[in-house]
Write a structure and sequence with these properties.
alpha/beta, TIM Barrel, eight-stranded parallel beta barrel, globular
């Protein structure tokens, strides 16, 4: 199976678990069956927004969802039945260090749901804790090798959180870290992951403020033999529409970027409005659809500009 992916990809991401139940619902620890049902219904509403987006013309073949097994209910099966691309997470939620959600049974869970993409979220700063990074790399290599041995695609969400000294070097300003330090740290992280023998089909990465940085990142993901078809999609990081729009506009014209995988920036306000009673369910789902389609327009308008 050749490495990489061919085609555009616009993913609505709602695989959030620990942070979702805590920040949206105020639930700490393991949710009760009733709380689980409430959370699952909220995710069903987000998916209803995707169904509306499809009705309103979202591009067939490029449209997809990223949803979890824990709270996803029947969304994975419905997405596949409706011809959407399906991505599902493999990582344990809410951990600073990557580990498998289902331990040694990760392969059985992937085979049960049969997603188009198996996704991990990994926090990896190349100047961070060396022992933790090494443990993560070993687990990720095991996953990557299993996926490709079984003809499955690997979607790798890379976050590069600032180390204390890195943040201090830019006066504690997160925006300066993002623009001045993070792009090169991301490139180095990708290179280190590749050098360990971990092969990725699609990199889900944080946006960058300058197009030159997007070009450098795309070039790194494709460096080395057999990686010429590896692609990148942008994540939203819960940022404002203006910020996400800027990231999309910088990345869209760059060869190697094929779309996005955005979550909270699309559905957070709509879902909050539904839960606090200020938005009827239908309007909340419609708002999700509108936000999703708007980000596609932003990306595609810049792509052809």
């Amino acid at each position: 199976m050749a490495l990489g992916y061919d085609g555009k990809l616009y993913i609505l991401a709602f695989d959030h678990r620990g942070s979702f139940q805590k920040k949206m619902f105020g639930i700490a620890g393991d949710p009760t069956p009733e709380e689980t049902a409430t959370i699952a219904d909220a995710k069903r509403l987000i998916y209803e927004g995707m169904e509306l987006a499809v009705e309103r013309g979202a591009e067939a073949g490029a449209t997809g969802v990223l949803v979890d097994e824990q709270f996803g209910s029947d969304v994975p099966s419905q997405a596949k039945a409706n011809g959407l691309k399906l991505a599902m997470p493999v990582e344990k939620s809410g951990q600073n260090e990557f580990d498998f959600q289902y331990g040694d049974d990760f392969g059985a869970h992937i085979e049960q749901f049969d997603p188009d993409f198996s996704k991990v979220l990994v926090r990896f700063n190349p100047d961070g804790d060396a022992e933790m990074n090494a443990r993560q790399l070993s687990r990720l290599k095991r996953l990557a090798d299993w996926l490709h041995a079984n003809d499955r695609l690997f979607l790798f969400e890379l976050l590069v959180p600032a180390e204390d000294d890195q943040l201090a070097s830019v006066g504690g300003e997160v925006d300066r870290y993002d623009s001045e330090l993070r792009p090169e740290l991301m490139r180095r992280a990708i290179e280190e992951i590749q050098d360990f023998g971990i092969e990725v089909d699609i990199w889900k990465i944080e946006g960058v403020d300058a197009q030159a940085d997007a070009q450098a990142l795309a070039a790194q993901t494709r460096s080395g033999e057999g990686r010429e078809n590896v692609v990148c999609v942008l994540l939203g990081r819960g940022a404002s529409d203006a910020k996400v729009d800027h990231w999309l506009r910088e990345a869209a014209p760059v060869d190697g970027f094929v779309g996005f995988a955005i979550g909270r920036s699309i559905w957070w306000d709509a879902l909050r409005g539904f839960l606090d009673g200020t938005l009827p369910r239908e309007r909340a789902a419609s708002q999700v659809a509108d936000n999703y389609l708007r980000f596609i327009r932003v990306y595609e308008q810049q792509e052809v500009a």
